[in-house]
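Run: sequence + benzoyl coenzyme A -> complex structure.
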Amino acid sequence: MSGIDYLERIPNNVDLKDNRRLLRALEEWQPKFLGWWRDMGPEGFQAKDAYLRTAVSVDAQGWAQFGYVRMPEYRWGIFLAEPEANRVIPFGDHKGQPAWQEVPGEHRGTLRRLIVTQGDTEPASVEQQRHLGRTCPSLYDLRNLFQVNVEEGRHLWAMVYLLDAYFGRDGREESEALLQRRSGDRDKPRILGAFNERTPDWLSFFMFSFFTDRDGKYQLASLAESGFDPLSRTCRFMLTEEAHHMFVGEMGVARIVQRTCELMREHRTDDVRAHGGIDLPTIQRYINFHFSVSLDLFGSEISTNAANFYTMGLKGRFEETKKDDDHRLKEATYAVADLDGDRVTMREQPALVSLNERLRDDYVADCARGLARWNQVIARAGVPFELRLPHRAFHRAIGCFSDVRVSPDGRVVSQAEWDAHRDEWLPTKTDEAYVASLMRPVTELGKFANWIAPPARGINGQPADFEYVRLA
Ligand code: BYC
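>> structure
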């Protein structure tokens, strides 16, 4: 037995000290997690002090404590949002019954699968981002990357807690498997498509944090409605952290857009590549890629899985309890995008099997609000250009549009037309090589790479030139 005091190392509000079985399972898992973190976590910075936020409790003072820490020593804790007294299952066949405090036996396999799918994304994103530290545009951005990484690590802990505490031996096996799959690996890939894509540069990272982390927001919000109360409470706390990740993405892209517009105006040209900026059409192509890949994460438009998750009371809708209907949806319908020959149309479908598409609708509306804010940056600079979300049928690999080619404006096109325009619509090898050529580390205090504007303010009231990571 090592001399580590796990109760001290694992801040928690799940009474770990009184749950010997769980503590033993976590003691066994923690060194494997650390081994994974050393192998697959941020490359090259494990021994550096970073100014990070750690959650040590769920109250206002405790959930965001800032200080310098070396990442392998980060205190990955287990936190559930405070229980809601007399909470009932808000939807599905069990609606109105007391929320489950233990796993409902008949839904055990399905629930485990949902938790594993959620859990799998967390280490996957750390793996995808592990090389980025080497090319950071500033210490401020480097710190934000590490904050996102350690919190994804904590989200993995959150799911492992559920598996170990509630699913016995098969839960522990799943916890191990979460450390064994690898993003992009041919033989043991991560479960969902977007988490096997590469995140080779910081433009991709910011796009990922904006678009793919936002899928996290909507999936977690749906799981936060779950009748299985420990899952609901876990996800509610995770959502507070997710907000910062999307902030990093939104502001990252906004700062790139701002810098691009500055260069366009300063040099009176659209050709900002000549001046070391990232041109707006390239940014648009990255949007097209990351948005479409993230749309796939919501699953097929028509899904009996989604209907079952709902009917079983395991996964609700976004803001389920704020909706004013019967929360069973047996009779209701919902308008779903569909393919009619070579046209994209809308078709009324039973609401239960349409839940993936409904959540995707909520997500698309949220993305559109972020895009509008990027467009304000462009408009304020007086540049006549507008970024757009591509049509939801564009470049899809999951669901009814996966077999056809669709243009960003929503027309079904021939393979020949697709081939002729592909390089206008999606990042090209040349784009990627150009963006890669900009990725040179900037680590002087208060300095920022030429292709990105400094942030309006620093983290936790600190200035932009604060020593967010101590590299010396
Ligand atoms: N890639 O009925 P279907 C986050 C599979 S992100 C590969 O269409 P369903 C984060 C599907 O699993 C949030 N496979 O879909 C963000 C199924 O396989 P099985 C993650 C896919 O089941 C950034 C089959 O296709 N959380 O937190 O209704 C950084 C037919 O499925 C994909 C969750 O996803 C895909 N894109 O819905 C860090 C929540 N899509 O089961 C973290 C939990 C579908 O037949 N997961 N398939 O073998 C779910 O709710 C559901 O599994 C999904 C799929 C919404 C993902």
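>> summary
Residues 229-267 form the longest helix (39 residues). Residues 114, 117-118, 121-122, 125, 152, 192-193, 212-213, 215-216, 219, 296-300, 303, 305-306, 315, 356, 398 surround benzoyl coenzyme A (CB under 6 Å).
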